[in-house]
Amino acid sequence: NNSSQLSSLPLQILLYVNGIYYIFYFLATLAMMIYKSQVFSYPDDLLAPDLAVLFLMAILEVPRSYLGFKGNLTEAEAPLGLSLGLTVGSVVLCVYLLLWQTYVLWADVLLNAVLLSAYGLESGLKVTAIAAFVS
């Protein structure tokens, strides 16, 4: 390949789509937590940790996405590597919401499965891009 451009278009597209999907994911998950707190006998001491995980995940999503965009566009492995590290944290929080939150509805399973799949695909593309940048 004679091209001097190493940034990954598929990664850039996926980061963009993931950003939009995450907004939908956050709002849908928050709405479901509110719904579950009204419909089920949701103990207050369990609602707070579930909400905390969702908000921590949202806080992580901002630098995770930013570093992914920046690292890919500037062809810099450090921001992309940091983004990959933050993705690991997001995956752990996503698995918590998939398996260990107080009430897990089928919609939770669907939303989290899509997000985990996107994180997995994105991580593979990040590793590929990092490999291209350092070679």
Automatic annotation (TrEMBL):
Mind telling me which GO cellular component terms the entry cites?
A: ciliary transition zone; membrane
Write down the membrane topology: Multi-pass membrane protein
Its signal peptide is: none
**Coarse class of the protein's main subcellular location:** other
Record bears the keyword Ribonucleoprotein: no
Q: Which Pfam families match?
A: Transmemb_17 (PF09799)
Q: Which residue stretches, if any, does this entry annotate as coiled coil? A: none
Q: Which InterPro entries match?
A: Uncharacterised_TM-17
GO biological process, any: non-motile cilium assembly
Per UniProt, subcellular location reads as: Cell projection, Cilium; Membrane
**UniProt entry keywords in alphabetical sequence:** Cell projection, Membrane, Transmembrane, Transmembrane helix
Task: State the protein's name.
Answer: TMM80 protein
**Native source organism of the sequence:** Zosterops hypoxanthus
> What's the gene?
Tmem80
